[in-house]
Amino acid sequence: MAKISADTVKKVARLANLRFSADQFKDYTKKFASVVDYVEKLNSLDTSGVEPTSHVLSGEGKIEPLKNTRDDNTGRFAGVDDILKNAPERAGRLIKVPKVID
């Protein structure tokens, strides 16, 4: 089983905004190690020469070559108003969104 340190589990928990009891901490340390072991097992497989059978760009059972739907274009914006011009609703320099928490 992979060695997962307590510091690694604490860091992952902090990044995921999780809080564990002492018992849960021990349990999740084992679970994280199990996930790492599984990924290591998958990484050891020789998949050279194996064509992908499906991906997010496949449609209706057709296997299409992997490609982006558009080229990434970078550029400068004239300012905040230029960036926010497509926002459906604004509040000053902010994008106004529906309230989702009471």
Topology:
Layout: H1 6-15, H2 22-43, H3 80-84, E1 90-91, E2 94-95
Antiparallel strand pairs: 1-2
How would you sum up this structure in a few lines?
The chain is mainly α.
What's the main sheet like? 2 strands, antiparallel
**Whole-number average pLDDT?**
83
Q: Distance N terminus to C terminus?
A: 44 Å
Q: Which outline best applies?
A: flat
Radius of gyration: 23 Å
Q: Would you mind describing this structure in some detail?
A:
By secondary structure, the chain is mainly alpha-helical. It has a domain at 6-43: Orthogonal Bundle (Histone, subunit A), CATH 1.10.20. It is 36% helix and 4% strand. Strand 1 and strand 2 (94-95) form a beta hairpin.
Offer a few descriptive terms.
102 residues; mainly alpha; Histone, subunit A; two-stranded antiparallel ribbon; 2 strands; 4% strand
